Amino acid sequence: MNHHDGLEERSRTLFQDSVDNLDMRVRSRLTQARHAALEVAAASGRRPWLLRASIWTPAAGVTAAAVLGVALWFGSPVGHHVITASDNPTAFEDLDIVASSDDGSGDAMEMLQDDVDFYDWANKAENPGPAA
Amino acid sequence: MVRDPPAPAREGAVLDQTRELDKFLAEVERRAFRMAQIALRDPDDALDVVQDAMLKLARNYSAKPSAEWRPLFYRILENGIRDLQRRRSVRKRFMVWLPGAKEDPDNEAQDPLDNVADGGPDAPEILMQSQAMEKLETSLRGLPARQREAFMLRNFEGLDVAETAKAMGCSEGSVKTHYSRAVHSLRDQLGEVWQ
């Protein structure tokens, strides 16, 4: 690679000259940027390792994915499953109360049955049959 | 279970690490700026990219061994340069449709005397150097990005092949190929002028 040396050497020298001759405004801006970076490094170094973002970022990602997965599972139709009495007895009692308050429920049928008995008795009382 | 060292020891270690990082950044910052400026043609953009690279290195990698900082820093820097160039090309596409759009810095002619600093060698010599540098910059900008990166990292920053490969995120073989092609292209363009 010797035939390249002249070009490499000259370009390196020119580049280094241009670096050495940077104006004060640029130098000052670079110094400010460096100090800002050092503050960031010092702040992140002082934090105990348990509080560092680099430790918690992957953990937070995994946790968020797990929560999302659970939410999707229970929110999706595939995740719905039939409730049995053993799952939650209280839920069954609630269902019974709701059902019993509806029209046509057991109570209503019972009241209707009472009415039928009453009308049957009233009919017989009004038209008594031949005395035995 | 990893335990933190006692607070005073940790404070001392942080101080040492900060001092070392200060030394490293002070050593590379000007060359990094010039490399970014050659690639981006705009000093303010170059300053932004270098500052961003410094912050990212400090925030994410300051705890790593200092021997790893150089390739990491240049990798962040080159990524920043590429991102900015991509954003510029997208912006340029949209700017075409806007009346009175501002000229992109890529198209602005640069005055060679902009790079001349106060003091130092006499004026004719400065002018010659400045013109030679201007030709070199123009030729470097004409190279494909990967060739330019390989040439600047190897020749200007002095990274070895392995470090350059880390900084560029490619194999050592690719670095050698990019570098060799860059040198040949530059020789073709600058050879006659520089003889």
Which whole number gives the mean pLDDT of chain A? Answer: 71
Helix content of chain B: over 70%
Flag low-confidence runs of chain A: 101-105
Which residues of chain B form runs of ≥5 with pLDDT under 50?
none
Q: DSSP helix count of chain A?
A: 5
Kindly report the average pLDDT value of chain B. 84
CA radius of gyration of chain B is: 20 Å
Alpha-beta classification of chain A:
mainly alpha
Which two chains have the most extensive interface, and how many residues on each?
Answer: A-B, 35 and 47 residues
Proportion of helical residues of chain A = over 70%
Secondary-structure element pattern of chain B, one letter each: HHHHHHH
The major beta sheet of chain A can be summarized as: none
N- and C-termini, Cα separation of chain A: 138 Å
Strand content of chain A: under 5%
Describe this structure in words.
The complex is a heterodimer of chains A (132) and B (195). Chain A is mainly alpha-helical and 132 residues long. Chain A has 2 domains: 74 residues, no CATH class; 38 residues. Chain A has 5 helices and no strands. The longest helix of chain A is centred in the first third of the chain and has 23 residues. Chain B has 195 residues and is mostly helical. Chain B contains 7 helices and no strands. The mean pLDDT of chain B is 84.
Task: Name its key features.
heterodimer, A: 132 residues, mainly alpha, 5 helices, rod-shaped, B: 195 residues, 7 helices, globular
Q: Summary?
A:
Chain A has 132 residues and is mostly helical. Chain A is built from 5 helices and no strands.
Spell out the blueprint of helices and strands.
The complex is a heterodimer of chains A (132) and B (195).
Chain A: H1 5-20, H2 24-46, H3 53-75, H4 89-100, H5 106-126
Chain B: H1 7-40, H2 43-61, H3 69-95, H4 123-142, H5 145-156, H6 161-168, H7 172-194
